[in-house]
């Protein structure tokens, strides 16, 4: 499912699961995806928000105040995505395609979060972060974003090519376990 996601976007989903477990929610929600985005891509928010790091921290606190913490669950529990969070991931793929990018990065997920109606959008609006403002930022910095996403995929491909001979060599040395037959 996450083949097209950059490492950064995958970490966003991982951190969203962590946030959901800390709040004790049974699903990963849109606001937890946004909290994860804030955690993973701080430089992006510092450029987009007028107040930089200070405003990013205020945004984080406002998002945390939206939910009443429940009983924390283990971070090893695999929490499912809510329907709205699933739509956000689908919107992220649409945004990447719309911009002509092969890979889905954190900026595409941020665009997707802003498309899904939620309380998180209200918080973003209060901080003067609008969908069109983000789109114009993406258009202005498209080459930087595409280079980053392509670079991550290329690095992974290179690693896979380097380790392939080692994997083949190791698997060829493994002898199959004998099969025991009962009389």
Low-confidence segments, ≥5 residues, pLDDT <50? none
Spatial separation of the terminal alpha carbons? 47 Å
Mean pLDDT: 78
Structural class based on helices, strands and sheet pairing: mainly alpha
Fraction of helical residues: 55-70%
What is the radius of gyration computed over CA atoms, rounded to a whole number of angstroms?
Answer: 20 Å
Which percent band covers the strand fraction? under 5%
SSE order, as H and E? HHHHHHHHH
In total, the number of strands is 0
The major sheet is characterized as: none
Number of helices: 9
How would you describe the shape?
A: globular
What report would you give on this structure?
There is one protein chain. The protein is mostly helical and 183 residues long. The protein is 68% helix and 0% strand. The chain is built from nine helices and no strands. It has helices at residues 7-23, 30-40, 42-48, 52-65, 83-98, 106-115, 119-126, 131-140, 142-173. The radius of gyration is 20 Å and the shape is globular.
Compact summary:
The protein has 9 helices and no strands.
SSE diagram, text form:
Layout: H1 7-23, H2 30-40, H3 42-48, H4 52-65, H5 83-98, H6 106-115, H7 119-126, H8 131-140, H9 142-173
Helix pairs in contact: 1-2, 2-4, 2-6, 3-4, 5-6, 6-8
């Amino acid at each position: 499912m996450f083949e097209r996601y950059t490492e950064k976007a995958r970490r966003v989903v991982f951190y969203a699961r962590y946030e959901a477990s800390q709040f004790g929610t049974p699903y990963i929600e849109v606001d937890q995806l946004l909290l994860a985005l804030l955690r993973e891509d701080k430089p992006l928010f510092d450029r987009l928000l007028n107040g930089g790091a200070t405003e990013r921290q205020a945004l984080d606190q406002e998002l945390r105040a939206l939910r009443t913490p429940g009983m924390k669950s283990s971070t090893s529990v695999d929490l499912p995505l809510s329907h709205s969070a699933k739509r956000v991931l689908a919107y992220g793929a649409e945004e990447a395609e719309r911009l002509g990018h092969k890979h889905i990065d954190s900026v595409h997920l941020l665009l997707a979060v802003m498309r899904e109606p939620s309380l998180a959008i209200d918080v973003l609006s209060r901080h003067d972060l609008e969908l069109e403002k983000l789109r114009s930022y993406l258009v202005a910095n498209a080459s930087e974003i595409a280079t980053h996403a392509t670079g991550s995929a290329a690095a992974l491909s290179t690693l896979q090519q380097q380790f392939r001979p080692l994997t083949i060599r190791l698997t060829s040395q493994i002898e199959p376990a004998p099969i025991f037959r009962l009389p």
